[in-house]
Amino acid sequence: MAVRACGLIIYRRLQPAPSSKVADSIEYLLLQTSYGTHHWTPPKGHVDPGEDDLQTAFRETQEEAGLQASQLTLIEGYRKELHYPVRGKPKTVVYWLAEMKDCNTEIKLSEEHQAFQWLKLEDACKFAEYEDMQATLKEAHQFLCSRE
């Protein structure tokens, strides 16, 4: 059976300069794991028994980044499922998109992560070394920009 995990791609909007495009004011939150290869990823984790996918995404975000559901706005219409093998077993990860209500809210990391960064799309893609994660970030960004 496939391992199932869920998470949130969290972004914030900075005050854009009058001449800049909306896309330039968006930054994504990535967390650096404190285990393994120390890869960078949005907050995510395994679904607990009795939980639905979205509950998992919000719980994991609270555990890993210290963000409450009330501090985020879930963006309607975006949901992305990734499928890849981990240690020879299939894994499914479901992501939703959520905006920080206050872009200055403090991030409080759990022991699972050693660092976090707010990154513009190009840098977020450099940090997220997996191609499917890069593609997901680009797709989410495109989704946001098309809603403006």
UniProtKB/TrEMBL annotation:
Belongs to the Nudix hydrolase family. GO terms for biological process: AMP biosynthetic process; ATP biosynthetic process. The keyword Magnesium does not apply. It catalyses: a 5'-end CoA-ribonucleoside in mRNA + H2O = a 5'-end phospho-adenosine-phospho-ribonucleoside in mRNA + (R)-4'-phosphopantetheine + 2 H(+); P(1),P(4)-bis(5'-guanosyl) tetraphosphate + H2O = GMP + GTP + 2 H(+); a 5'-end FAD-phospho-ribonucleoside in mRNA + H2O = a 5'-end phospho-adenosine-phospho-ribonucleoside in mRNA + FMN + 2 H(+). PANTHER family: BIS(5'-NUCLEOSYL)-TETRAPHOSPHATASE [ASYMMETRICAL] (PTHR21340:SF0), DIADENOSINE 5,5-P1,P4-TETRAPHOSPHATE PYROPHOSPHOHYDROLASE MUTT (PTHR21340). Keywords: Hydrolase, Nucleotide-binding. Catalyzes the asymmetric hydrolysis of diadenosine 5',5'''-P1,P4-tetraphosphate (Ap4A) to yield AMP and ATP. Exhibits decapping activity towards FAD-capped RNAs and dpCoA-capped RNAs in vitro. One of its GO terms (molecular function) is nucleotide binding. This is Bis(5'-nucleosyl)-tetraphosphatase [asymmetrical]. The gene is Nudt2. Its cofactor is a divalent metal cation. Its EC number is 3.6.1.17. It comes from Thryothorus ludovicianus. It is an enzyme of class 3 (hydrolase). It comes from the Eukaryota. InterPro entries: NUDIX_hydrolase-like_dom_sf (IPR015797), NUDIX_hydrolase_CS (IPR020084), NUDIX_hydrolase_dom (IPR000086), Nudix_hydrolase_domain (IPR051325), Tetra_PHTase (IPR003565).
